[in-house]
Amino acid sequence: IGNRIRIKADETNNTAWFGCGSDINTINLGDADFSSAYLSVKQATGRVGIGTTAPDQMLHVKTSSGDPSIVCETASGGGARLKLIGTDTNMSIQSSGGLDFYTGSSTTANGNLKVSIESGGRIRCTDGIYDDTGTNELVLHANVSGGVGGLYTAQSMGLGIWTSNSQRMAITSGGKVGINEASPDHKLHLT
Q1: What is the value of pTM for the model shown?
Q2: Cα→Cα distances 4→37, 41, 129, Å
Q3: CA distances, 161 to each of 15, 98, 151, 174, 179 (Å)
Q4: Mean pLDDT value of segment 108-113
Q5: Phi then psi for 6, rounded to 5 degrees?
Q6: Contact partners, residue 14, CB within 8 Å, separation at least 6
Q7: 186, 72, 164, 65: which is closest to 172 by C-alpha?
Q8: Residue 130 in contact with residue 124, Cβ under 8 Å?
Q9: Cα 97 to chain center, whole Å?
Q10: Which of 57, 65, 167, 183 has the most CB atoms at less than 10 Å from its CB?
Q11: β-strands 159-163, 123-125: how paired?
Q12: Which is nearest to 37 in space by CA: 15, 18, 60, 21?
């Protein structure tokens, strides 16, 4: 169709090309009467819309009802992966029977494992659980010292156990234990 739309088969590389002239802004693939577009590519931005002709990101998936989904599937041998690469940080989400979250270098296969949700529901966190400031840390560790597990705070602070929205037990950073006492002043303080 002139130089506006071209279709080319490259038999050397076993590829097919669909091209358009610079005066065409959008390529839509849709139904036979041109009333609905299923796939839309914006030439100027390279944005791709699935279910929308107005993609506002590099990939925009939209459905008229229900939840839009993106499926990454492997036929056999290995887990599916979604990898997000930025200039400052990278993140990879991988499923291999569970769900693993990685951060770190895009040059390594996975980066550094940070959180893992195993298929049985157990959650593993490699660097502890932090508050919103990132300084107060609570760590549950399976092998703290000599094969003994532990629950500890990484900062110089105490540890409390709460039930029904009330503190039931306190351990100070100095090792004093309070049962039904939030501020124990003896090695064991019961109230």
Answers
A1: 0.48
A2: 20, 15, 57
A3: 63, 30, 12, 16, 9
A4: 62
A5: -135, 140
A6: none
A7: 186
A8: no
A9: 16
A10: 167
A11: unpaired
A12: 60
Tokens of 86: 């930025």
User: Which region among 57-61, 113-117, 139-143 has the lowest average model confidence (pLDDT)?
Assistant: 139-143
Q: SS3 string of the chain?
A: CCCCEEEEEECCCCEEEEEECCCCCEEEEECCCCCCEEEEEECCCCCEEECCCCCCCCEEECCCCCCCCCCCCCCCCCCEEEEEECCCCEEEEEECCCEEEEECCCCCCCCEEEEEECCCCCEEECCCEECCCCCCEEEEEEEEECCEEEEEECCCCCEEEEECCEEEEEECCCCCEEECCCCCCCCEEEC
Confidence of residue 153 (pLDDT cuts 50, 70, 90): confident
Contact 66, 45 (CB under 8 A): no
| Predicted local distance difference test score (pLDDT) of residue 38 | 80
Please give the Cα distance from 6 to 183 (Å, whole number): 78
pLDDT digits (tens, 9 = 90+) for 16-27: 777 776 667 777
